[in-house]
Amino acid sequence: MTETRQDSTTRAYPFSAPDRLDLDPRYAQLRQHEPLTRVRLPFGEPAWLATRYADVRTVLGDPRFSRAASVGRDEPRITPLQMASGILSMDPPEHTRLRRLVARAFTARRVEDLRPRAREIADELLDRMVAGGPPADLVEAFATPLPVTVICELLGVPVADQGRFHVWSEAIVSTTSLSPDRIREYIDNLYAYIGELIARRRRVPTDDLLGALVRARDSDDGRLTETEMVQLAAGLLAAGHETTVTQIPNFVYVLLTHPAELARLRADPALVPSAVEELMRYVPLGVASSFARYALEDVELGGVLVRAGEPVIASLSAANRDPEVFDDPDRLDLTRAANPHVGFGHGVHHCIGAQLARMELQVAVAALLHRLPGLRLAVPEPELEWKSGMLVRGLRKMPVAW
Amino acid sequence: MVSRRWRVTVDPRRCIGSGICAGAAPGHFVLVDAVSIPLDELIAPEDSVLDAAESCPMEAIAVRDAADGRVIAPEP
Questions:
Q1: CB-based contact A103 B26, cutoff 8 Å
Q2: Interface contact A112, partner B, CB < 8 A
Q3: How confident is the model at residue A167 (pLDDT cuts 50, 70, 90)?
Q4: Is A396 at the interface with chain B, CB within 8 A?
C-alpha cells in the first residue's frame, strides 16, 4: 500500500553526530520499518532517504532519477555551499561525454600497471617510518603520502606542491570545518593552481592525465570546455586526497579493534583483496549521504510514491548493512564470499577511482601487515582524535607503534 | 555503410555490476544479479553504447562491427 507523505514524520538528518565508525542504529530501524522516510538536512529542501539495498541501487542506477535536475533547486545537503555545476550534477549523455575523457585512465588494466609503483612508494614510506622508530602518526607518515603521490603522478601534479593544494582540497569535503567564504577561497585557489599547470602544458605538452585533458580540450571538437577541464582535474586531485587517505587509517582502526579477523588476515595474506572489499562494505565512510537524485516522474519505491520533482537520498552505509543481501551484516567477515557492496556507489556516478582505490588499499594493507607485524595503537583507543565538520569519517591522527 | 550493425557483448567474468552501462545506455544494458547483460546483441549504431563501453572500468563491454568483427569500442 502506498503511504501518503502526511503519514510520515520528517526527521533531522544526519541522525546524530558521527561517533567513530559506528553506524547510527536508526538506519537499521528505518530499513526494516520505514525504508523510505522524510528527512531534513542542515541545508536545502527536505528529501526522502532510502535505506534498503534494492532501493538504493534503484535511486542510483535508474535513469528516472536524475542529478541534473538538482541544478536550480535548493538541494538537500550537509555542505553550506551547493556545487551547482560539474560532473556530479550531470546525467547521461552529457555526463558520459565528460567521464569518458578520463575513464580510460582508471580502468582495472591501467591501474594494474600502477601497482608496482604504489608498492615501491609504500615500501619507501615504511622504511622511513621504521627508521624514525615508534611511535609514528600513520596518517602523516603513510596514509596521506601514498595516495597523494599516486594521484599526483597520474595527473602530472608536482608532489612537491602538496603543501599548497592539500589545504585547498579540504574545501571540497568540508561541511562546517571551514567557513563558506574560506571554502570559496580555497576552491578558487585550487582552480587557479590547476589553471597554471594547464597553461604550462599548452607550452610544453605532457603524457600525463592533465596533458591528455589539455589535448582533448584543444582538439576543438567541443567535447570539453575550459571550466569543465579545470573542475574535472581539481575534482580528481581532491578525491585522490580525501578518500583513500581517510580509508587507510579507518581500515587499520577496524582491523586493530577486531583482533580475531586481523589474525586471520595475517595468517593468510591472500585474503587481502576480499578483506578490502569487506572493509569497504563495513566502514561507513560518509558522515551522511548526499547528492540527492531527483525523480523525473512518479516512481513507486519502498512502499511510497515518490512524486516527480522530489529528491531522494540513497544511504550507501545502510544498503551495505542490509540483511536481505548480506548475511549477519553487522559482523566483519574478511572472507565474505559474495560481497556486492555499494561502497563506491552505483550507476553512472560509480566512483571513477574505484579500481585505483582498491589497488591502493590492497597495497597499503598488505605492506602494513608484512612490514609491521606488531602494529598497534600507541595511545589508548578513547584518546584517538576523530575528524569533525567533514563529509567523511576518519582519524585526524593515528599514533601507532610496532 | 547502409544498415551497418554492431555486435555488443559483456564479459560476465569481468563485469563488477557497477551499473554505469545500464545508466549510460538504459535501452541496451540491464543488470541481472549484479551482472550486466546486453538487451540485444545486434544493434544499430548508437553513441550511448560506445559511451558505455568506454566508461566501463573493467573493459567488460565490447562493441564490434557485426560484419567483420572489428573492435569499435573500447579503444585499446
A1: no
A2: no
A3: confident
A4: no
Q: CB burial class (10 A; 0-12, 13-18, 19+) of residue A256?
A: middle
**Cβ pair B54:A63 closer than 8 A:** no
Kind of pairing, strands B71-73 and B61-65? Answer: antiparallel
Contact B19 A97 (CB under 8 A): no
Low-confidence ranges of chain B (pLDDT < 70): 1-3
CATH architecture of B6-73: 2-Layer Sandwich (3.30)
Is residue A13 over pLDDT 80? yes
* For chain A, percent of residues with pLDDT exceeding 90: 81
Section A224-250 average pLDDT? 90
Overall number of domains in chain A? 1
Specify whether the CB–CB gap between A173 and A288 falls below 8 A: no
Question: pLDDT digits over A313-368, tens only?
Answer: 999 999 999 999 999 999 999 999 889 999 999 999 999 999 999 999 999 999 99
Rounded to two decimals, the ipTM of the complex is: 0.94
Domain boundary assignment for chain B? 6-73
The domain spanning residue A10 has which CATH number?
A: 1.10.630.10
* CB atoms B19 and A346 under 8 Å: yes
Residue from B21, B55, B56, B59 whose CB has the most chain A CBs within 10 Å, to mutate: B55
Residues of B in contact with A95 (CB under 8 A): 24
